[in-house]
Amino acid sequence: MQKFKSKIYYGWIIVVVMGIISFVSMGLLSLNFGLFIKPMGDDLGIGRATFGFAQSAMMISAAFSAPFVGKLIDRYGTRLLLPIAATITISSIFILSQSDSSIQIIIVFIVMGLMNFNNPGNMFTSIPILKWFVKNRGKALSFSSLGIPIGAIVFIPLTQILINNNGWQLSLMILGSIGLLVIIPISLLFLRRQPEDIGLQPDGKNLEITSKNEENIKPETSITLKESYKTFTYWQLIIIFSLHYFAVGTIALHRIPAFMDRGLDPTLVSISTAFDAVCAGVSSFIMGFLISKISSKWIASFSFFCLFIASVITIYAFDFWGMFISMSIFGVGIGGLIFIQNYIWAEKFGRENVGTIKGSSFFVIMLIGGIGAPLSGYIKDVTDSYVFIWWISVLILFILSISILFDRKNKSE
Fold first, then answer.
1. Which pLDDT score is estimated for 277?
2. Residue 201 Cα to chain centre, angstroms
């Protein structure tokens, strides 16, 4: 076992690295993907349903690979796995820049989904932090989440500037190159699997010192995947997050081209989208400090309600301020749920098998959630309107804001 001695707990280095990776990931077809839909669609003569199907294909392929990815992260950590996933994902982005048909685009997104790198609830950047922290887990997730708003401020306007000046193809190449040059070196240099591997315990306690004072410590209890299957919480979270991804999938991706269809300037749309991510990052950061005072179920309920309000405003937003307000509130809700989805699996089931348990849940969550984006795009292509499917999602989000409040404790809590 390699021992690490420093005045600074190494877990905080992991937090910084994950924050940087989250920052760069904002340029790798995460939130900025919506900015490519209209120029790619216009240039290639492709309808909105294709991009919805591409997003869905990515989530479905992620559903099949997530259980294996989560288990691999538990066993080997992300030091080598993350660079491999990032390399294949970014190579797919390079290939996407040369794609000229719907089937090619969908295939590229399937490959990206298999890597589980730039999907919602990225396990590569969240699970390591869950391993390194228990008492300070909320704060650690908060600080790592700062990479999201900072990345949004930089990469979303940058993406629109690159598209305006260089076209969508060269823009994809540039953004992918930035990700490749940053993510791989820092992952190989700094990432480690868990604190025990270098002679530490979660939150920075030394193993030797801790072993002399075990009677004063209440360790976090972890349960196995098989045991999680028997809990009410496991299935409740799967149902809630599946419906969450479905509802958000119908709106989040398509609202960007929808605002452009309503005559709003693409630059203003990109600014609002960037501010959406800023609000998400700030919200996630604040929730990390509130979690020690407020139950996770109330934070989740508040976040779902924000998405409910924001989605209603989105339906009626035909000017800049309507769009800006809807995206701001949407960001607050998404940020809260980003934090909750990263935090709650370790809170409910412990850290030892959190990757395996979270990965297994994503099989169902991604399969169901992946239906939302293509269904919304299909309805738009057929009816020339998103309104019907968006109202269904509004109802779902309102129901989720209430249903998350009903929970039962597991033995790990």
1. 82
2. 27
Report pLDDT digits (tens) over 67-107: 999 999 999 999 999 999 999 999 999 999 999 999 999 99
SS3 8: coil
**pLDDT tens for residues 186-202?**
999 999 999 988 888 89
Residue 406: what residue type?
F
In a domain, 3, yes or no: no
Asked whether the predicted pLDDT for residue 210 surpasses 80, the reply is no
Amino acid symbol at 66: A
Tens-digit pLDDT profile for residues 393-403: 999 999 999 99
- The DSSP-derived string for 120-134 is TT-HHHHHHHHHH-S
Q: How confident is the model at residue 3 (pLDDT cuts 50, 70, 90)?
A: low
344 found inside a domain: yes
Look at residues 289, 344, 7, 29 and name the one whose alpha carbon lies nearest to residue 145: 289
pTM higher than 0.85, yes or no?
A: no
Rounded CA-CA distance 113/312 in Å is: 30
Query: Which residue type occupies 152?
Result: A
SS3 256: helix
Crossing angle for the helix pair 81-96 and 48-76, to the nearest 10 degrees: 160
Domain extent at residue 336: 10-206+220-403
pLDDT of residue 410: 60
| Residue 97 belongs to a domain | yes
Distance CA 310, CA 305 (A): 9
CA distance 355 to 305: 28
Distance CA 29, CA 119 (A): 10
3-state secondary structure of 379: helix
Average pLDDT value for residue range 10-26:
93
Domain count, the chain: 1
Return the CATH number at 96. Answer: 1.20.1250.20
Could you please report the per-residue DSSP string of 200-249? B-GGG-BHHHHHHTGGG--PPP---HHHHTT-HHHHHHHHHHHHHHHHHH
Backbone conformation region of residue 29, classed left if phi is above 0, alpha if psi is from -120 to 50, else beta:
left
* Alpha carbon distance 308, 247 (integer Å): 10
Asked, for residue 15, whether it belongs to a domain, the answer is yes
pLDDT of residue 123: 86
| Closest C-alpha to 123, from 72, 60, 186 | 72
Where does residue 185 rank: exposed (0-12), middle (13-18), buried (19+ CB within 10 A)?
A: exposed
Instruction: Give the pLDDT confidence score for residue 215 in this predicted structure.
Output: 46
